[in-house]
Amino acid sequence: MPTILITGGAGFIGSHLTTLLLSKGFSVVVLDNFSYGKRKFLPENNPSLHIHEVDILDKSALQTHFELYKPETVFHLAAIHHIPTCEQKPELAIRTNIEGTENIILAAQSVGVKRFIFASSGAVYEIVDEELKENSTPVVPHDIYSITKRAGEDLIRLYAERKVFKSVVCRLFNTVGSHETNAHLVPDILQQVLENKTEIALGNLSPLRSYIHVLDVAEAFATIGFQEFKNDFETFNIGTESEHSVADILQLIAEISGKALQAFQHPDRVRKVDRHRQRANLAKTTSLTGWSPKRSLKEALQDAYQEAIHV
Ligand SMILES: NC(=O)c1ccc[n+]([C@@H]2O[C@H](COP(=O)([O-])OP(=O)(O)OC[C@H]3O[C@@H](n4cnc5c(N)ncnc54)[C@H](O)[C@@H]3O)[C@@H](O)[C@H]2O)c1
After folding, report:
1. Predicted model pTM
2. With 256 labelled, which of 140, 150, 291, 300 sits at a CA distance of 20 to 30 A?
3. pLDDT value at position 111?
C-alpha cells in the first residue's frame, strides 16, 4: 500500500482521517507541531503510523521527512483555523496558512508526490444567502482566515496547472464531533454545560450553517483523495445540505444531556460581521465522487458530548 502523509494529522479532522486510512491498510506519516493537535487522538503502537513533531514553517525538517518517506499522496490539513485567533495573530496565520502551504508544495514537488489534497473552507465564499456552489462568486476577503485559505487554494491550483501533481481542494463546512481542538461553538456550549450552567452564554443565535460530522469529513477525504478526475485541479464542497441554527444546536445538546438549557445572548460574544447563512450545495461533489454525508448533527453532538463528559 502507498504511503500517505498528513500535515496536521494529530488535529481534530486529521486524527480521524489518520485512523481511517490506517484501518484501510495505508502506511501513514503524520507531521504536526502539536500546537493544537494531540498525540492521544492517534492510535498507539501501530507500526504503520509514523508521527513526527515538525513545524510546516521549518523547510529543512520538511525536506528530511519527505525524502525519508517519499509519500505518494499528501493531505495538507495543518493550519491556524480558529477565525478569532487568525484575527488576533494575523502574522502567524498568514505565515502558517500561506507560507506553510508553499513549503509543503515544494517539499511534495521535490519527491514527486502524485496527489495533493488541501483542506480549504466554505469561508472562501462570498457572504450571500444563496446555496454555495464550487463556481459561486469568489470571495471578497472578509477576514484573515478566508484570505489565507483562498491564497492556499490559488497556490495549489497554480502548481497543479504546471503539472507538478494532481490536486483536489476540499472546501469543508462547519465540522462537529470528537477531538475538537479549537474554541468553537460546540466545545464552548459543552464546557458551560459541564460547569452545570443552564443559562448558556452565546453570541448570534440565528445564523444557519451546514454542520457536518467529522467522520463524514474523514470519509470524504479518504474517498476523494484516491479518485481520478478529468482535471488536474478540482474543488469540492464537503458539508451537508441541511441547515441548523445555533439555537438548534443548543436544543439538541439539551436533549442529549437531559438538561434544561436556555440561551442568553451575551453582548461581548455577538459578532459584528457574521454570515446569516452558509449553505453547501453538494451536487458537484455527489455526482463526481459518489460521496455524500451519512450521519446526523445529533450523532456528531452525541460523540462530542460523550468525549467531554469522559475527560
Ligand atoms: N473544523 C472545521 O470546521 C473546518 C472547517 C473548514 C476548514 N477546516 C480546515 O481543516 C483543516 C483541519 O482543521 P481542524 O478543525 O482539524 O483544526 P485543528 O486545529 O485541530 O488541526 C490543525 C492541525 O495543524 C497543526 N498545526 C498548526 N500549525 C502548524 C504548523 N505550523 N506546523 C505543523 N502543524 C501545525 C495543529 O497542531 C493541528 O493538529 C484546517 O486546514 C482547517 O482550516 C476545518
Report:
1. 0.97
2. 291
3. 98
